[in-house]
Amino acid sequence: MKTFSIAFVLALVVSAVSAFSVAIPAMGGVNGGSSFVVSQRPQQSASVSATSRNGASSLQMGNMAKFGIFSPAVYGAKIALGGEKLNKIRGKAISLHSQYIGEFCEWAGAYHLRTRLIKKAKVNGDILGFLV
Predict the structure, then answer these.
(1) DSSP string across 62-91
(2) Which residues contact 47 (CB under 8 A, 6 or more apart)?
(3) Residue-wise pLDDT tens for the chain (132 aa)?
(4) Residue 67 φ then ψ, to 5°
């Protein structure tokens, strides 16, 4: 447990340090400032569409995930815990989150939005870097 705690703190520190890295002027704002606004624009891609021509889902899986703000923490956890254990924990977290989304949709009377909200959660997790 102590090793996990140390690894978790280390992963948080690495994640926090990468969040404050210097922005590249070419990618920044008008005068080369922060790239925050540029990175927060909604991006449309083919990976968001629900189905492709053959009917299979075209959402990206972990192997093609984007690098986001939490990616360093995920890489640290992968080193500390190992790939298998991390995938077990990740699967459990995704399962619980999907369950809570379903319960919320039932409570709000909008169960028809459950699938859309779960897909949106996956896209957000990809953008934030949880799926690397």
Answers:
(1) GGGPPP-TTHHHHHHHHHHH-HHHHHHHHH
(2) 58, 59, 60, 64
(3) 566 555 555 555 555 545 444 444 444 445 444 444 444 555 555 454 444 455 555 555 546 888 999 999 999 999 999 999 999 999 999 999 999 999 999 999 999 999 999 999 999 999 999 998
(4) -85, 120
Structure-block tokens of residue 25:
């002027």
**Global confidence as pTM:** 0.52
What tokens does 23 get? 């922005």
Using left for φ > 0, alpha for ψ between -120 and 50, and beta otherwise, residue 42 falls in: beta
Phi/psi at 75 (5° precision)? -65, -40
Q: What residue segments make up the domains of the chain, in order of their start?
A: 1-17+66-132
How far apart, in Å, do the first and last CA atoms of the chain sit? Answer: 24
Look at the alpha carbons of 100, 72, 14, 80 in this order and tell me if their dihedral is positive or negative: positive
Burial class (CB in 10 A: 0-12, 13-18, 19+), 57: exposed
